[in-house]
Amino acid sequence: MPSQEQYVIVWFRRDLRLEDNLALRQALQHNLPVIPLYIWDDSLEGECARAWLAHALQDLDQQLHRCNSKLIIRRGSFEDVLNELVEEISVCAVYWNKVYEPGLFEADDRIQRSLRGRGVYVQSYNSRVLNDPLSIKNQQNQPYRVFTPFYKHCRKYNQEFCRRHYACYFPHSLPNLNREVVDDLDLLQPWGKSVIASWNPTREGGMARLRHFMEDSIANYKEGREFPAVDGTSKLSPYLHFGQISLHELISLVVESDLSEGIQNHFIRQIYWREFCYYTLFYFPYMTYQSLRPEFEQFPWEENGDYIDAWKYGKTGVPIVDAAMRQLWQTGWMHNRLRMITGSFLVKDLLQHWQHGMVWFHDTLIDSDIACNSFGWQWLAGSGSDATPYFRIFNPYKQSQQYDSGGEFLRTYLPELAALPDEWIHIPHLAPADVLQKAEITLGIDYPFPIVDHPEMRIKALSAYKSIRERKT
Ligand SMILES: Cc1cc2nc3c(=O)[nH]c(=O)nc-3n(C[C@H](O)[C@H](O)[C@H](O)COP(=O)(O)OP(=O)(O)OC[C@H]3O[C@@H](n4cnc5c(N)ncnc54)[C@H](O)[C@@H]3O)c2cc1C
């Protein structure tokens, strides 16, 4: 039975929180029953991130329960679900916080028009990034392509921004919902239990992580963030991806802390890298499937399924790469330094297209984010707009010796190498026979020989790069 009562919908997207949620706050201004809605779309997140999402939605539902409300989850296309609801019940307004990913941003425009055509008031806000990409252009009124000037521009513009806009709006009494609206939260089968087990994918889990980072790690972030065995980074990326913590909350906490400006800025700069990823994707939506530097479309990538499988499952014979890939598989996580080492190994040592790496990361990372992931891969491949020069090729063995000198990280994920002394654990293929024997390791049986020779592949990669440069000139 259609109800005569008027409703307001707040459509949750990647803003799964009640605090500092502009769309929710505005929806509540109507003083009408608010329907908190989430529209589930299987294609929206990577495989592993979807498990996080299921938990995050349950957590949001529990928070809403405490406010006498509940989350309505529907499946289907955004437009269809919203239009169905408008037909089912009397909806006078719909609010949401925008997303900026290709396809979604344009779809929002269409949805707005369609709802307005039905006489529904619609309003959407930016909370996904610090600045709406449309508001940031260089002096020639063109999008920035290089990070540093973009960062300087935004920081100047944002000086007061974070403080002014930050507020914690907790809706203490959400109205009761129309019970005719079907709630199928129970139909979601949260999976990936083993991966999720090491995380607390709730808003409270994110806030606890943030407090821990502020108390223990941020002061040493500049150095600590480089070492995979050290708990030196915030690990907030999945919480930021799903909007369980808002960017404004995070930055306000940092700028209002007693930490020196230098320390604050080291961390905030990284948040602006995220911002730059979104900005670049907004202006160059083909970034997920096409090189931003056109000459890289001619790069002579090799196609070798065995190499790709060895890389995915941590069987390349290069310990730091294998340990990192196993960490990813087991925990859904990989440290930034390791994302760079494993990524560089795939594109420059194995000469496999960065798309293979991007797709694997998309499905296995718990913080899988289309903007940061595609930007990261193009950066590594050298094909991005502000990318690492192609000729800078990481030596995975040296990186391992430098950033995990005591082999602590390697021993965690490669127990078969644990008995090797620090000197040899990074390079078991070069270890003397008696060292291997003492550690009871037979290469080729207990642990693979390297699938490629790094110095040889380095030369090959540089010559492949030269070939596309020559074509360009
Ligand atoms: C190949 C590759 C793929 C990546 N894929 C993703 C991805 O799918 N999702 C994702 O969130 N990040 C991705 N990153 C960026 C970065 O590795 C992660 O954001 C970071 O490791 C998350 O850990 P943290 O939260 O502890 O970071 P912290 O060091 O604590 O940084 C705080 C926040 O700043 C942002 N940030 C930090 N470094 C970067 C960076 N290099 N690029 C963009 N944002 C950054 C993140 O939002 C991060 O949570 C990728 C990097 C590479 C090289």
Report on this model:
This protein is of the alpha/beta class and 473 residues long. It folds into three domains: 6-128, Rossmann fold (3-Layer(aba) Sandwich), CATH 3.40.50.620; 129-166 and 201-283, Serine Threonine Protein Phosphatase 5, Tetratricopeptide repeat, CATH 1.25.40.80; 294-468, Orthogonal Bundle (DNA Cyclobutane Dipyrimidine Photolyase, subunit A, domain 3), CATH 1.10.579. It is built from 22 helices and five strands. The protein has helices at 22-28, 47-65, 78-88, 104-117, 147-157, 161-165, 193-196, 203-217, 221-224, 237-241, 247-255, 261-283, 305-312, 319-331, 336-349, 354-364, 370-381, 396-403, 408-413, 422-425, 433-438, 454-472; strands spanning 6-12, 34-40, 72-75, 90-97, 121-125. Strands 3-2-1-4-5 form a five-stranded parallel beta sheet, sandwiched between helices. The longest helix has 23 residues, at 261-283. It is globular. Bound molecules: flavin-adenine dinucleotide (FAD).
Question: Which features does this protein show?
Answer:
single chain, 473 residues, alpha/beta, Rossmann fold, Serine Threonine Protein Phosphatase 5, Tetratricopeptide repeat, DNA Cyclobutane Dipyrimidine Photolyase, subunit A, domain 3, 3 domains, 5-stranded parallel β-sheet, 22 helices, 48% helix, globular, binds flavin-adenine dinucleotide
CATH architecture of the largest domain: Orthogonal Bundle
How confident overall, as mean pLDDT? 90
Tell me the structural class: alpha/beta
Total DSSP E strands: 5
Give the CATH level 1 class of the largest domain.
Answer: Mainly Alpha
Helix content: 40-55%
Secondary structure tally, helices:
22
